[in-house]
Amino acid sequence: MEERTRDGDDLVEFAEMLRGGGATDRAARAIDPAARRRRRRRGLIASAVVAVVVLAPPAGYAAWALNAPLRAPLAAITAPSAPAAPPAADIRFAPDGVAALSVAGAEAYLGPEAAGVWARYGDDEPRPIASITKLVTALVVLDAFPLADASDVGPTLTFDRADHALYDAYFVRDATIAAMPAGSSMSLRDALATMLVPSASNYAEVIAVWAFGSVDGYRRAADRWLSARGLERTTIVEPTGLDPRNTSTPTDLIALGRLAKADPTVSAIAATPSVSFPATGPLANTNRMLGEMGIDGLKTGTLEDSGSNLLYSATVDVGTAEPLRVIGVALGGASQQAVGASAAGVLQRLAAGFHRTALAQPGQRIGTYTTAWGSSLDVVLAEGASLLTWSDTPIVVEMQHREPVEWVDGETIGEVTWTAGPETDSTPVVLEGMIEPPTAWWRLTHPGEIG
């Protein structure tokens, strides 16, 4: 205190000297106690003034630097890139004969025409359909004598000697036949099964004559039935398919396949691998493709001069909301093995054309926010994402994001969305980590990066 007082006295004396005061005045004041007190008070005030003058600017800067708002972190965020599209699917029908394909349940992927005739190989001209005719026979008879449900077996057919004689008549024509003992009987449902499963031609004629009185009566009923359903390019002259004048086009047969699949009796029988009845014994289905690649029907047919045919239905699970419902036809193949292999290959390639593509993983890093003082946090995808795509359908990526508000771990700042055809998937964009505040030293030493 004495030192500070002396400093103050010196300042006062210096001021008095500037005013011109002499030594006599100083001596007088030195003797006067009141004067000494006044001198001491003036010294304290002078010291405070000097301190303010010297120290005020640095203290003001420090207060500003330590409390000024910081610049926002710099963002470096990039939307995930879309995966490259795979090669286009190639259905590739067999090179012999003609073929067509209908796919229901995938119109959003394949186009609205898929449930009609989606793919085709060769022309669309009428060709002999052989025993596929028996599907028409079954549908025409059931239109006249419908069965209510699976428990309804329908009326009873009793076979006489004339019916039994057809066994030999068709045997000499090298047709597929099944035993029909005179005096035996069978329900309509079982008779239809004997006609469709082993493709017994003698049963086809007996059922048609029983229902319509004669083959001519059946033909007229078939004409009416076909015309009513728009199958104008299908011609049926007899119920078995042995006559090559029984013809149809791939387009008409696709429509016929849908009608057969929609009929619960015909659909159930066509999907049966084998049947056995007292009059016939065990009988195997001529459609050896049942169970292959989801094939569950419908009918084979072969004529020596026109080749082998297959009208098939299939249920194919490719990951869509519901399995695909396929109707396909192949006419004029080299053999039943060939048309069967062709159908299986078409279905396999159809299924392979659908891809489940992984697009994102939970925690996948897509960017950062970085501060001027070196602290940073990551920008990541909160969830995984994937899409089901068909063939080479491109995947489009869109991202929306905003500036963080809380700057805390887990804060959602946007969304990434992927789209391909009818499929869309998205995942939130979130922050991962925390921004560490700058040190006081950094604030004091980086004035140009504050505010």
Automatic annotation (TrEMBL):
Transmembrane segments: 44-64
Keyword Membrane: yes
Matches recorded under SUPFAM superfamilies: beta-lactamase/transpeptidase-like (SSF56601)
UniProt GO BP: proteolysis
GO-annotated molecular function: serine-type D-Ala-D-Ala carboxypeptidase activity
Keywords from the named record: Carboxypeptidase, Hydrolase, Membrane, Protease, Transmembrane, Transmembrane helix
Keyword presence, Zinc-finger: no
Sequence ranges assigned to domain Peptidase S11 D-alanyl-D-alanine carboxypeptidase A N-terminal in this UniProt record: 123-331
Name used for this protein in its record: D-alanyl-D-alanine carboxypeptidase
